[in-house]
Design goal:
This protein is of the alpha/beta class. It has a domain of about 190 residues: 2-Layer Sandwich (Dihydrodipicolinate Reductase, domain 2), CATH 3.30.360. It is built from 15 helices and 18 strands. The strands form three sheets. Strands 7, 8, 9, 10, 11, 12, 15, 16 and 18 form a nine-stranded mixed sheet that branches. The chain has a seven-stranded parallel sheet with strand order 3-2-1-4-5-6-17, with helices on both faces. Strand 1, helix 1 and strand 2 form a beta-alpha-beta unit.
Length: about 425
C-alpha cells in the first residue's frame, strides 16, 4: 500500500499511470500532476472505473522547485515518479531532497538552455574533461549522490527501456551468462509505420536533439566521437526484418562503462528510415533544430519548440501505428574460460500496445519499465541510499516484473554480431 506522486501526463506517463493502476495492491494511491491539469483530470476520469487505485490530480509547474515542494508537502508521497521532461530532473530532485522523499525518472538531465553562454561554458568544460560532447548525460545527477546518501534517500535514474531495461539486461548477462563481458552492442529498432511522411515517436524536441548530436562510443577506456549518423550498419531484427541502423551517443553507455568491469567496447545503434533522415537533415540545414531563441515578428521563439508545435503529437500516433519494435543487447565475452556470445531483447507490437493502453509501443516500452522501477523501490527489492542507475541493482526481480507486465525478454545464444 503506497502513495505515489507522478509528475507528467504525456504519452509515456499515461502508460506508466495505467500500469500503476493495474497493480493497485502496491500503487494504492496516486496523484497525477502536470502543467495542464485538464489532461490529468481526463485520464483520471477514464481510469477510475477500472481500478482500485485512488487517483487524484494536481497542477504543477515542474520548472518551479517551490511549486514541486508545495505539492510534495501537501500530498506526502513515498515516491515521486518524474515522467516529465529531462530538463526538469534537477528541479524535482531538489524538491525531493527538501521533502525527504525517494525519486525516480526515465530520462537523464540536459540543461534546456544549453545555448545560453553561462550554461555552455559549464557544459563545454565538462565535455572537455570527459572527452565527448553529447547532450544527455548522467554527470549532473550523479553530482547529487552524496546528498541523497546523507538524506537516506534513493534516486533511481533512467528507468525506461534505453536507458533502463538495456542496463538491466547488461547486469543480467554479467550475473548469469558471463564471467567477463568484452563488448556490448545496444540495438534499438522501431519497425513501426504511422503513415506520416515525418513524425517522431516521442517528444520531438528530445528526439531530434538526440539524433542530431555527434555520436560516440566507449573503446579501450576512452571515448571515441564521430560526426552525427556517420556510422551505419544493417541488421536483421527478429519480428521486424532488415533495417538500417546508425551509431549514436546514448547516456547509458556512460554508466555501463563505469559499472561493467573491464568492458572493452560499448556501442549504441538506432534504426532510422530514409524519409526520417531526409526530413531531419533538411530541418537541421535551415536551422529548425536550433535551441537558440530568435526574434520573429517582434517576439522571441525557439525554432525546435516551434517545430514541435507543428509536428504530430506522439500521443496521437497510437491508433495509426503498425509493426513492431525490437530492443536489446548483444554481448561477447567469456564463460568458464571459453568465448561466448549472447543476445537478450524484447519484441513489442504497436497494435497490441494500443489495444491495452491506447498507446504505441515507443511509449509502452518506456512506461512499463517506469512502473516496474517504481515497483522495485516501493516493495523494497531495490533499497539503498544514493543516486543509482538500473544496472547497479539486482536485475532479476526487475526483469521478472517486466515480463509479468508486458515486456518479456527473448534470448539467442548464437546471435549475428555487429561488425
Amino acid at each position: 500500500m503506497s502513495r505515489v506522486l507522478i509528475i507528467g501526463c504525456g504519452g509515456v506517463a499515461s502508460v506508466a499511470i495505467r500500469k500503476c493502476c493495474q497493480v493497485s495492491e502496491v500503487f494504492s494511491e496516486i496523484c497525477i500532476a502536470s502543467r495542464t491539469k485538464s489532461k490529468c483530470d481526463e485520464l483520471a476520469k477514464k481510469l477510475a472505473p477500472t481500478t482500485d487505485t485512488n487517483i487524484t490530480t494536481a497542477r504543477v509547474d515542474a520548472d518551479n522547485v517551490d511549486e514541486v515542494i508545495a505539492l510534495i508537502e501537501s500530498y506526502k508521497p513515498e515516491l515521486v515518479m518524474n515522467i516529465a521532461l529531462p530538463y526538469q530532473d534537477l528541479t524535482i530532485m531538489d524538491a525531493c531532497l527538501h521533502c525527504k522523499v525517494n525519486y525516480m525518472d526515465t530520462a537523464n538531465y540536459e540543461p534546456e538552455d544549453i545555448d545560453d553562454p553561462e550554461w555552455r561554458k559549464i557544459y563545454d568544460e565538462r565535455c572537455k574533461k570527459e572527452g565527448f560532447s553529447a547532450y544527455f548525460d548522467y554527470s549532473w545527477q550523479w553530482a547529487y549522490k552524496e546528498r541523497f546518501e546523507n538524506a537516506g534517500l534513493t534516486a533511481l535514474l533512467g528507468s525506461g527501456f534505453d536507458p533502463g531495461v538495456t542496463q538491466a539486461y547488461c547486469a543480467y548477462a554479467l550475473k548469469h551468462q558471463f564471467d567477463t563481458i568484452d563488448t556490448i552492442d545496444i540495438l534499438d529498432c522501431n519497425g513501426g509505420d504511422h503513415g506520416y511522411p515525418f513524425a517522431t515517436n516521442f517528444n520531438p524536441e528530445i528526439n531530434l536533439r538526440e539524433v542530431s548530436a555527434p555520436g560516440s562510443y566507449w573503446e579501450n577506456g576512452k571515448w571515441v566521437e564521430i560526426p552525427a549518423m556517420s556510422i551505419k550498419r544493417e541488421y536483421c531484427f527478429d519480428g521486424v526484418g532488415d533495417k538500417d541502423m546508425y551509431l549514436l551517443h546514448h547516456e547509458e553507455i556512460e554508466s555501463l562503462a563505469k559499472n561493467i568491469p573491464n568492458v572493452k567496447k560499448i556501442r549504441f545503434f538506432m534504426t532510422f528510415g530514409q524519409s526520417y533522415l531526409t526530413h531531419m537533415n533538411c530541418l537541421q540545414n535551415v536551422g529548425m533544430l536550433s535551441t537558440a531563441p530568435i526574434m520573429y515578428e517582434g517576439r522571441e521563439i525557439v525554432p525546435i519548440q516551434f517545430l514541435k508545435a507543428l509536428l504530430p503529437d506522439p500521443a496521437s500516433l497510437g491508433p495509426r501505428t503498425k509493426g513492431k519494435t525490437n530492443i536489446g543487447c548483444i554481448f561477447t565475452g567469456t564463460k568458464d574460460g571459453k568465448p561466448k556470445s549472447y543476445y537478450i531483447y524484447n519484441v513489442c507490437d504497436h497494435e497490441e500496445c494500443y489495444k491495452e493502453v491506447e498507446s504505441q509501443a515507443i511509449s509502452y516500452t518506456t512506461g512499463v519499465p517506469a512502473m516496474c522501477g517504481a515497483l522495485m523501490l516501493l516493495t523494497g527489492k531495490w533499497n539503498k541510499a544514493g543516486v543509482y542507475t538500473v544496472e547497479e541493482f539486482d536485475p532479476d526481480p526487475y526483469i521478472e516484473a517486466l515480463g509479468k507486465y508486458g515486456l518479456p525478454h527473448r534470448e539467442s545464444f548464437s546471435p549475428v554480431l555487429v561488425d
